[in-house]
Amino acid sequence: MKTFAAGSTNAYADPVLLDTVLRGFPGLTVVLAHGGRGWWYEAAATLATLHGNVWIELSGLPPAKLPEYYARFNFPRLARKFIFATDWPGMPGTAANARAFAETAERHGCDDELIGRVLGGNAVDVYGMGRDDRV
Prior knowledge:
Layout: H1 18-24, E1 30-32, H2 41-50, E2 54-57, H3 66-69, H4 75-79, E3 82-83, H5 94-107, H6 112-127
Parallel strand pairs: 1-2, 2-3
Protein name: Amidohydrolase family protein
Domain Amidohydrolase-related: 12-128
Organism: Streptodolium elevatio
């Protein structure tokens, strides 16, 4: 049986450990991969809602499960901090995942503008994509 991320360790992956870093470096942008993963979804969402410079990247997360993973949070409010990403090739395809996210988000109160931000606009802002000042 193949295990997910064989050989990887999550000993220091708890998003709560970033709280001190975020306070010490308020200008640092942090993108939490895989939405915090497992028992850390709530911690990741809390940090993202408390800090303007913390983002939740969605690779590896089934779009239909997002409302379940973040059930304690207002979905449209939290979605403002989402960055769409994929775990290609370990998912049904980028376009299929994007459509699934859009459908899930719409069912949970997100408008077209917010869905567009998640599917691309947030990444453009966070990663500086499309700006002339790139190296």
